[in-house]
Structure formats: C-alpha cells, structure tokens
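Field: sequence (string)
Field: structure_tokens (string)

Example rows 1 and 2, in order.
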Amino acid sequence: MKTLSSSALLGTLFLLLLTFACSQPQEPIYRGFEGLKANTISTKRITLSGEAVYHNPNAFGGEVVSTDIQVIVNDVPAATIQQEVSIPVPATAEFRLPLTCNVSPKEIYENDRNGALGGIINAVLTKKVDVKYQGEIVVKLAGVSFTVPVEYEEQVELK
C-alpha cells in the first residue's frame, strides 16, 4: 500500500480548505433611505431626490446594474425609476444609490382620491405630500446577481 507524501497531503488539505473556506456571495442588506426632499417645485414639475442606503457584507465588491422603482405620491403612481446603471459597490462597506425623479403635480392632484380640488387644497394647506418608493435594484457580486428591495415612505414638505 502506498502512502501519501507530505507535499501531496498538504496539497490535498489545501484544496479541502479552499473548497470549504470559499463561500457564496451574500445579498447586500437594505439599510434605508436618506435625504428625501423636493428639489424643484413648480406647477409643471416636482423633482424628488434621495439615496437608498445598502451594506455589502462581502469581502469583494461589485456593481449595481439596474433599478426598477415605483414612486407613489399621495397614493398615486407618479413616476418610475427604471434604468440600466453601473454604480460601484465597495467590499464590506456601505454604499448609496442616488435616486432622482420628476413628477407632475397635475397628475397627482387630478388622480388623488379626493379629486383634483381636494388634492390641491390638501397640498396647499399642509404643504406636504406622502411619497413612497417601492421596487428593487439588481446588484452583481462575483458574477452572482441579487435582487434587493427598496421600500420607503415619508412625508415631504413642498417649500
């Protein structure tokens, strides 16, 4: 019976260690949304912007490759942020995805459950709108794609 040489034994142990030490990439963690604000406010357009915040728990980076997010204002679908992108994702770190969209005040107020007049009166009196971001982003890490949610709701002041 043949015995393994020490170099063959070390090589086998190294291969076993490498096999078990390498794990699959983990999905990025959605941490929340920051800085939601109305940048431009006019009778024709409201520009909303903010950042979705995530954490990459992996020891290697990747990239955000696409977004598909619905923006809902006062319970009315107002915009879609659907794009192909290439945004770097650093290893074992937080990353931010800037999201900007334009919504039409006319569509929001006309489709408001209270009707156009009720929506306009409500916005004028409160100077606030309820904004929801619902959707997902696709992040690619080490050749593996992850679909990660975006869920956020906040009242935004119209100044």
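Row 2 begins here:
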Amino acid sequence: MKLVKRIGLAILIVLVGIQFISTRSNQSSEVPSTDFILTYKVPDEVGQTLHTSCYNCHSNNTNYPWYSHVQPVGWFLENHIKKGKAELNFNEFGSYSVRKQKSKLKSMASQIEQGEMPLPSYTLLHRDARLTPESKELLVDYLNALQDSLQ
C-alpha cells in the first residue's frame, strides 16, 4: 500500500508541476490584408460561419477556452492549432499562389461536404461550430464558385 501511495503522490506532483509550463498563445488583434475574408470580400453569412467554425484553428487568432490553461490539454490544443495553421491559415490566404488557393478551396469544399471539417472532436465541445446542412451548402457553393472564378 505504501508503494501505491508513493506512486499516487509522484503522479500528483508531476500533474501540479506541469501546470507551470505554459503554452504559446495564438492571439493577434491584427487582421492582415491577406485575410481570406478581406481578400475576397466574403458575404457576411459566409464570413460569420467561417469565423465560428474554422478560424479558431486556421488563423492567427484563437479564442481559447478555459480548459486550454490546464496541462496537458493546453499542449494538445497548441499542437492541434499549429498543425491546422500549417495546413491552412485564413489570415495568410491572400498571399498564397493562385494555384495553392484553388487547391485549398477545392479541399475545403470537399472536407466540408464529407463532414471532415470542422473536426468532430472540435464540434463536440464547440456546439456553435457545427455546420447545419444549410450552412454546409452555403459554404460549399461559395467555395466552389470562388474556385471557378480564380484564373
């Protein structure tokens, strides 16, 4: 029993200790001119849907929930956001080549149609980020039309 108590105490000390190791913050008050919504003068309804369902992981400004300050959850979120931004960053979209933009637009429409984005693990905790069939159709139609309009 003494061994179990020592192991439990060691685990507790580690869990408390890691709370002092902070994560990097992905927050910026600046909206660059290369932002997707500014670059393409996106309709309000589409822009609002993108902000609610996509921008938290795919931009330079994340709205962090309270639990992001609890480790190791904060580390998981930091890694998730880093990967999301590496795949697509809406704040930098206007600086992508036309070829890359077309590819990203096609990929976005496809992933939304197939229900791959936003991630189910994200929408589980962020219910407002869930896409209704109508909002999916709106986004997919807009993204496909935009892709077709690019030269």
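free_text_note (row 2): The chain has one domain: 37-149.
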